[in-house]
Amino acid sequence: MTGKTILIVEDDGIIAARLHDVLTRSGYAVPDPVASGEDAVAVVAASPPDLVLMDIQLAGVINGTTAAQHIRRDFDVPIIYLTAYSQAEQLQRAKATAPYGYLVKPVAERELLATLEMALRRHELDRRLKESEERLALALWGADLGLWDWDIRTGTITCNGPRTELVGCRPGETRLSFGDWEQRIHPQDLAAARDALRAHLENRAPFFESEYRLRHKDEAWSWVLIRGKVIERDRRGQSMRACGIVMDIGQRKRLEENLRRLATTDPLTGAFNRRYLLQVIETEIGRAQRYARPLSLIMFDLDHFKRINDTHGHDAGDAILREFSVRLASNVRPSDFACRMGGEEFVVIMPRTSGDTACMAAERLRRQICAAPFQCARLSEPLDVTISIGVASAEADDDADTVLKRADEALYEAKTAGRNRVIGKAAKSAA
User: Is 14 within the bounds of a domain?
Assistant: First the structure.
């Protein structure tokens, strides 16, 4: 490690001169030795060396340990102590300054050079480690991440980084048990998180990744993404330690939900749109056929809706559509799907519902609509609105188009028969 600068702090002139000669011959840059703690601090402040050889007992107000404390704290320069004494109390005070070694006077040249070389290398490694930790801390802060380290043998998870609460730690905590971590995961997400973790621990997946809702101290839930990897296994391949990161994905989840809502709902009424209707029909028909369960469709049309637009304006027509959608949604089951086909046509998909039951539900809704006039700011007085309804049930070999067509035919019959009525349409094979 030649080329490094070594400052000698020694009040014995003969020893200082000998040390200076040995270090100079060995290729180190050695400024003039100093004899007091005050001078040592001043020299280091003016031009920090790479290492200080510090005598513990010095002339002057500041002794060697006090000077070393200032130098380590303010300048991060490694210290190697020179001492002719080895009292326990003295060494204990020196130890508190985190020295990089001790040399007992008189010092053998070989021991001196070996100790210097090891101290300089260790300090370089410490410096690199510190820089890496600072970069990691900055990266975690910039990415808004939490860091976790799981000792699988003890079941202890250690949290680090700016977002330790994303791992599950409470304020002021840096550790939690594996059981506590699981308890803070939403019950609906726990099985998937366990499966993903087990797959990695058993070497069936290259890493662990899961998205779940995490409960905070205020009992609120937030979405997080956790990733990690086993970094230590025993001789039998059993997992011993895993590390990873966790991040807040609440904003992403909200964006996804907004995009899903925009893609699946009608912007005017808030009901599901035609695209989602076709997706759900395909899914529900497949489920009904697979489990031999009934499935029915109810198709609605607001009677004489063009007349409403022409007489009262499109704003009034839009208000009536919105009000009808609200009434429709409040009169269907949570398992049903209320959709707007387009214009003034709406469809309700009713899983596990026979045609007769669907017809009764449609008739009940028709009466409720007729019994309560529609009101909105664009109308000078309440407006009576009636609806025509067609009902169809899915048969064994039906697809979405077939069932929709049958419901549309039933709706057409209801309209041609005078409107404001319910018509159920059976399959031709059952007619």
Answer: yes
- For residues 229 and 200, the answer to whether their CB atoms sit within 8 Å is yes
Question: Which position has the token pair 């309209």?
Answer: 415
Boundary of a domain, candidates 72, 105, 138: 138
CA distance 275 to 400: 12
Look up tokens 């005050």; give the residue.
Answer: 38
Q: Please, what is the angle between helix 13-25 and helix 109-143, to 10°?
A: 70
Question: Quick one: 328 and 307 in the same domain?
Answer: yes
Whether residue 272 contacts residue 280, with contact meaning beta carbons closer than 8 Å, is answered with yes
Domain that holds residue 58: 6-138
Listed residues 233, 253, 273: the one ending a domain: 253
Nearest to 52, CA basis, from 61, 242, 381, 39: 39
- Cβ neighbors of 261 (< 8 A, separation 6 or more) are none
Question: Same structural domain for residues 121 and 60?
Answer: yes
CATH label of the domain that carries residue 32: 3.40.50.2300
Contact 119, 51 (CB under 8 A): yes
**Helix, strand, coil in percent for the chain, rounding step 5:** 45, 25, 30
Q: What is the pLDDT of residues 66-115, one digit of tens each?
A: 898 889 888 989 999 888 765 666 666 667 777 888 888 888 899 999 99
Structure tokens at 212: 């779940």
* Number of structural domains the chain divides into: 3
Q: What is the pLDDT of residues 304-339, one digit of tens each?
A: 999 999 998 999 999 999 999 999 999 999 999 999
**Cis omega (within 30 of 0) for bond into 31:** no
**Average pLDDT for the chain:** 89
Q: How far apart are the first and last CA of the chain?
A: 99
